[in-house]
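A common beginner's mistake is to predict each chain separately and then try to dock the pieces by hand. The better habit, illustrated here, is to supply every component at once so that their relative placement is modeled jointly.
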Amino acid sequence: MKGIKDRVAIVGMGCTQFGELWDKNHRDLVVDACYEAFEDAGIEPKDIQMAWYGSRETGFTGTQLASALKLEYIPVSRVENFCAGGTDTFRNACYAVASGVCDIALAVGVEKCKDHSGGFNLDILEPFDRSMVEWDLPPASQFAQLATRYMYHYGWKYEELKRIFAMIDVKNHHNGTMSPNAQFRREITVEQAMNAPIISHPLGLLDACGVSDGSAAAIVTTPEIAKSMRKDYILVKAIALTNGAGQAILQPEYDFIHFPETVAAARNAYKEAEITNPRQEIDCAEVHDCFAITELITYEDLGFSPRGKGPEDVEAGSFTLTGNLPVNSDGGLKCFGHPLSASGLRMIYEIYHQLQGKAGPRQLKKVDIGLTHNIGGICGFFNCTVAVFGKP
Amino acid sequence: MVGITSYGAYVPLYRLSREAIAKGARGERAICSFDEDSITMAVAAANDCLNGIDRGTVDGLYLATTTSPYKEKLGATTVAMGVDLRQDIITADFAHSLRAGTAALRSAIDAVKAGSAKRVMVAAADCRLGTPGSALEQNFGDGAGALLIGDSDVAVTVEASYSVYSEILDVWRADDDTFVRSWEDRFAATRGYLEVVREAVSGLMKKFGFSPSDFAKVVFYTPNARRGMDLARSLGFDVKTQLQPSLFDVLGNTGTAFPLMLLVAALEEAKAGDRILLASYGNGSDAFVLQVTEQIEKIRGRRGMKEHLASKKVVDDYKQYLIWRGLLPVEPRKETVSFLSAPAAWRERDANIRLHGVKCKACGTVQYPPQRVCTKCHAKDQFEPYRLSDKKASIFTFAMDYITFPLLDQPVVTTTIDFEGGGRMQCYMTDREPEQVRCGLPVEMSFRKLPMKDGIHNYFWKSIPVRT
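With all components supplied together, the output reads:
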């Protein structure tokens, strides 16, 4: 079995402003993200041979993308994989290039969450069908259940774990002040985060990411073609996707202090990228910080921190811009909000620029290997992507 | 020999202080929570009644209520499924009168006597609405009672029965009324209740040769705290020693369920040999002569009236009651789920209403909801049904949402629970105080109503702290 490592290159990327974009529809966002990517790659829309369109809320087949860009009679597939949809869209485009069926492929993710009351449609047909007997609440309660158990399992006092969450929130808000495309660009304090109204105990308002509209796009090709297009193309080292099969709610052994989907995706991605010591070998990461608890547990699931020791690394500042493994250097979901299928590509956009040395005021010193991570869904049924990128 | 082989009752956890309705009003009345109705209370009472009894032996379920959630659609079937009874049984709703509870009881007795069924469950429940602030609203209470009628292991024999009917408008509710109406008490009492029940009871005693001193206890439905005593006195019973107390100060008039619930309260104190007279009222009266047997001691392990009444939380915010009953509009939540499918609800009826999980015949793993392929050993279609509604559980983890239902249910507690004997489930938690919710808290399952959608009352199970 051949992996994806060094077989696909990113030659162009685009990303719109994320936020409450009342005056733009999903087609406007797709045009803005893709034309930035075309310009970055130095190609025309007609050069695209295959395309993948990721959208949960605004999706209606691949024709949505074809019609917005006037892609004429080329294959366009719609991808929907909840919060991992953006990276999965990218994965499909990469696999097409790696298989040799096309030379240049486009991956786009977009959502107009703010057109939907409540952010997005919560028709999740797991574990029940349309009898709709499962709880019908915003996502916070899913992740709050992990926060509750994490606190109980490790014997954390409420205020102490809330302070760890707050430090993660403060870090991401600080990074976001340097991201022109972010929804929120202001500093917050630990006290503000700890005292914010509770949305779902134990998570407060500032432990949660925002809801926003946005789009991001990537153009991928073979390393050979990429060489002819630009010097600073970026290589895909690994892309892993995992889906839960309901284990967390079907098997009482599941402990609610880790995401088995992330652990499996990370294992597969590290194998593909030939990474043996992620903490040492990865220089920066964009992880799925939909809630502070998700980012905290993800440190442990990705092998950045030993199990149960994520809070120690938070206190040591390991994941800040000046730490030894900066996480969410652009401010993460916390500052960009989370237009589901766009988020994964927005993360890749940041890693792409960090690897190229073009991340502006938040540019990190040494970046040879970067990682992105998405997880979404409900307990037992999460889907997760872990992708690894590097320089040629 | 035909009679009562088991009894059960249900009183909601919440009581509304009558002082909250009207200054100076005495006592408290039982009120359903926002997610309860007559169906859910009937399930709870019937489950109490079935404690330790093989559900496969029940041949019928009669539901008696004037407050069915549907005008057209049987309620008895939901209750029968909720208590996980067989599919090949008699089901019927008895409705439209506060006498429906004893009408169902009498029909069950007749069915068993006639040999068309061996065991029939009678469940009566009511959650009636009085106009806000009215005397009727103070008077009413919510609750349910259940009696299992059979021809073996009889704990209370039915020796005689007698019925009269009466065409009168004393208490009524038209088909488009929300609130119960009544004519003035003087008329309702003298020409209605007192006259009609007296006629039934005296008719019964005369026909079968009983006199007041033959009874250890008399159990009378009563429209208020006073009239039942007036009735007992006028029939020659001693109020102090013979009349079952009406529980008005702690329960209220539970309508159709009231005579059954008062009978359960009497049976909790009764001893073998006691003769009990039971009489209902509602456009007539059904009267029964009952006698307690030695078997009564074998069915004591029920929460019944005593334990349910003792376990309570008093609500002193009248606004809360009005919101729970839908009488005070609150801003609806933003819709996030698009529609509910009747075919899907039908396909999932065993999982959702019976609370059946599955147990893998290959590896023994209990799983909820039911699966086709085992989560552990991956065996395909090797499952047997496994009832979870009667299993104890404990909270593994939880969350408390403070944004979704601000005035109705705040915080909304969601739980992941692990059942004793295997199986895990994620569900809402209800009847809880936020301070008491913790990892490890023992819980039990309670049948409840989810928010109504598209004209469909959607029922499902929630966890509650073990009711003690």
